[in-house]
Structures
1.
Amino acid sequence: MKLLVTGATGKLGTKVVETLLKTVPANQLAVSVRNPEKAEGFQSRGVEVRQGDFDRPETLDSAFAGIDRLLLISADGDNDTRIRQHSNAVAATERAGVKFIAYTSIANAMESQNFLAPTHKATEEAIIKTGIPYSFLRNNWYLENESSSIQGVLAGAPWVTSAGQGRVGWALQQDYAEAAATVLSGNGHENTIYELSGKLLTQEEIASALGTVLNKEVPVQQVDDATYADIMKGAGVPDFLIPFLVNIQKDIREGTLEVESNDFEKLLGRPATPITEGLSQIVKSIS
């Protein structure tokens, strides 16, 4: 049984491989990465490193050859780029005769109005069309995505948001990584969908939890989208990232991440890491 993780040198991918190495022999693990030199740490521990570039489909045939179970970690970029890259990867799994695909998707992918959802809907549809047994890991939102807001609070700024009362199921990347590792290496996950979400919280609730961790009051500044964009620009956020951040705030406000679920418990035998514990880990890592 040979398992493969794509994007294994990214933040989530690295955590997935590290988790797998605790229970799966290294010689049963392979990774597909664009730059193999970045995966030398895994290679030195007996993991097979293969070169695979989603923009060069011919490299994926050798990257996926002989693989039984594959985890497709969604790529970065705009929706059109990601849809093209993912469809290349899905077509290659079919050509290679892969027997199971797990894919990191987004909350409520098929119905979601979230601006990131078109990529995930198209990819889920492409995977279903192959007829290969699948599992869709619909990841809600990484707590680590709030690192810049947490840094701002540490520097004395309020928690700035235009997300209104929209709720988010934040969880640590480590929780999502452990769920992915469980599905990739386990049995009985064929043709399943897991909505992976922590406890749903508003911006006020996450700011309050951060206040508990820091032992101080964290004021919340609710603003409109244009003001939010101006504040982010003033905080030194690169121009190209600002529309992304504004869209996320809008989509949270409109409830696109409000998907309640106990699927972490189903897969891990425990709920997602409590929010205060997760925030505490992030505060330690950036301070």
Note: The two ends are 42 Å apart (CA to CA).
2.
Amino acid sequence: MKLFEEKYGIVEYDASIPCIVLTVSGFMTSEQFRFLLNKGLEHYITKKKDHDKLLWVADTRKHAVHSDEDMRWVADDWNPRALAAGLRYMAFVLPENVFGDLTLKKYAQHTEKRNDDLVMEMFGDLQAAKAWCKEVVAQI
């Protein structure tokens, strides 16, 4: 179910897992990137009220490069708010281009340095990411 859509990204809810799915549709400015993540978190918080277990899937196949500053913002600002909302498990569908891949790796490095209680797994396709989420929900 689509919860939010702009040309640069979509936030959806998949009740079968349950999870929020954030899909990046292409290049975004820093402002759009932060807005999309915040919009996704807003919907996560709303849906979390109905679920003890709610995961996050980031489909970043079409993700373009973002600055180190944006990646630090996600790790240092967005992650703590997501953790406070109850998010513990995130699945990422890897970017198709090398620049998006480098950006995602920078985010993972910044998150690792913070030593957050956030479990992140990387996948080659959306189906595998969702399958992992179903396994996690069954185990937690």
Note: The radius of gyration is 14 Å.
